[in-house]
Specification:
Layout (H helix, E strand, L loop, with lengths): L2 H22 L1 H26 L6 H19 L9 H17 L4 H26 E4 L4 E4 L2 H24 L6 E3 L3 E5 H21 L6 H29 L14 H5 L2 H17 L1
Antiparallel strand pairs: 1-2, 3-4
């Protein structure tokens, strides 16, 4: 089987599982992204342990991040109060205290990578719950709504597709690089093409879901996701370049690891929440 066919099959299955889990129910959404959180944290710790000389406790780190996601899900859905976060605080206390007894050669590096992965991976995935569970002021309870979390991924895929197609067609005519030091293949014309396609898709989103956001608000959300998704991709490229690796993992045949697939979302999700929160305030 050629690599192109393998990539196509894996990509199709990946999108189908992700979209299906979001549309199906809050339970499938929660279970899938709890699993994604754990796998991504494990992959991150595995990479820094192998290539950066760290000795992060992969199990504790992954379990802590999964718990944070589940705690957000419980709190945002209204099933749990704020006390649900207390065990996560205990895990954060455990990580540095455990280094007192582990006698590792570089405990500071272990702390730094463990805490960085919680902020870089566990928190953004957990914040998806803030998009998925919305408050109903009339019923005074939260309800699950698939549209906003799914729209973030739709805009990310749209941005990637537009950037790839535009860059492939016009890179010789407009060769200016977006960030050559980190990612030599990204061009300005590709990024602009991705943004334009996002605006078109945002207009379609407004056509089918006019009650959720205005036309300008949909466009604003698409551009926020596009810009911060691009930065998220570059951040992961910097991470891999620093470690001297090509792919973050091999769990997805033809597509690399979990970080390779979700890198853009790790900055796009918090940015989308900040954007939507700002709209509600003003």
């Amino acid at each position: 089987m050629s690599n192109l066919v393998l990539r196509a099959l894996t990509g199709t299955a990946f999108v189908a599982v992700l979209v299906g889990s979001i549309l199906l129910s809050p339970w499938s959404f929660t279970l899938l992204f709890a699993l994604v959180t754990g796998l991504t944290l494990w992959e991150f710790a595995d990479n820094v342990n192998l290539h950066a000389g760290a000795r992060v406790n992969k199990l504790i780190n992954a379990v802590s991040g999964v718990y944070l996601f589940l705690a957000f899900a419980g709190y945002c859905s209204g099933y749990q109060g704020s006390e649900v976060f207390i065990p996560y605080l205990l895990s954060l206390m455990y990580l540095p205290i455990s280094e007192l007894y582990a006698r590792q050669p570089d405990p500071l590096k272990n702390w730094a990578y463990a805490f960085a992965s919680q902020l870089y991976i566990a928190l953004p995935f957990s914040l998806l719950n803030c998009l998925a569970f919305l408050n109903d002021p009339l019923k005074q309870q939260a309800y699950f709504h698939w549209l906003l979390p799914l729209s973030v991924f739709i805009f990310l895929w749209t941005s990637d597709t537009g950037a790839y197609c535009t860059g492939s067609l016009l890179h010789k005519r407009f060769p200016a690089k977006l960030f050559e030091r980190i990612s030599p293949n990204k061009s300005w014309v590709g990024s602009i093409g991705g943004g334009v396609l996002c605006v078109l898709v945002a207009s379609l989103m407004h056509h089918f879901f006019p009650a959720e956001l205005t036309w300008l608000q949909w466009i604003g959300l698409s551009l926020v996701v596009c810009v911060f998704g691009t930065w998220g991709d570059l951040v992961e490229s910097l991470f891999k370049r620093q470690l001297g690796i090509k792919d973050s993992g091999h769990i997805l045949p033809g597509h690399g690891g979990m970080l390779d697939r979700f890198d853009s979302s790790l900055l796009a999700i918090p940015a989308a929440i900040l954007y939507l929160y700002t709209l509600n305030q003003f």
